[in-house]
Amino acid sequence: MPDLLQEGIGFSVVKNRPAYAITSVDSALLLASLLQQEGAMRVTDVAARLGVSVSTAHRLLGMLVYRDFAEQLPDRRYAPGPVLRRGAQQQASVTTLREVALPHLRRLVDAVGETANAMVLAGSDVRFVATVECDQILRVGDRTGRTLPAHLSSGGKAVLATLDDAQLAASFEPLDAATAARLDRELRTIRRRGFAVNDQETEAGLTAVGVAVPPAGGFTGAALSLAAPSARYSRGRLPVWASALAEAAGAIARDLSEGPSGEGKT
């Protein structure tokens, strides 16, 4: 079962990993997502983020350039190409969020002992922009670059609970009447208690708790989550998790307000 643990326990009920995954294709698609989310990257940065050699990173970038998913800048960095620029969102802000959030995610993992994530709302989905894995053998894996339906994920629901009725309309539109009614009731509960729970709604065997990051530094729609194997989760852990998440979210908001010089402060 090592492959299962590497990717995160269970199989997604929303989007299954192919039985015969093609590693090079997966790496290229993840790289395209990173370029779209975070903007220009150096070859060495790409190699580090994907966990591949510099030569492999160079070949992946070369193929993305060939297909217009990337382009090389005069300073030799690689930026999103014409295809990705059609849907590029908040590149500078997402990069800043990731850089600011990472130290706080590490502290969350140290304090709670489970995997921590940062994500942003992207239409009716949330996109994971940073993950810090815990060191337990059975753990939730790295979600960076992936998306989940906002109305099912803990961080997505936490962000949706901060929106007004007009902003929520787009997220409710694709849902059937029963699902929309259930979500509306759940959002009222989330607003009251300040956190959201995803108990195996997106992946069998996975439970997550999420909170919204307060708007700061011109950035909105961000959230944090702690994710664990459901077998290790209990309602008794909720107060500790919710408190730790709220503290981290507040610290990230303060750092975003202060700008780059405030990164990592608590």
UniProtKB/TrEMBL annotation:
InterPro entries from the UniProt entry: GAF-like_dom_sf, HTH_MetabolicPath_Reg, Tscrpt_reg_IclR_C, Tscrpt_reg_IclR_N, WH-like_DNA-bd_sf, WH_DNA-bd_sf
Keywords: DNA-binding, Transcription, Transcription regulation
Domain IclR-ED: 82-258
Coiled coil: none
One of the GO BP terms on file: negative regulation of DNA-templated transcription
GO molecular function terms attached to this record: DNA binding; DNA-binding transcription factor activity
Descriptive protein name: Transcriptional regulator, IclR family
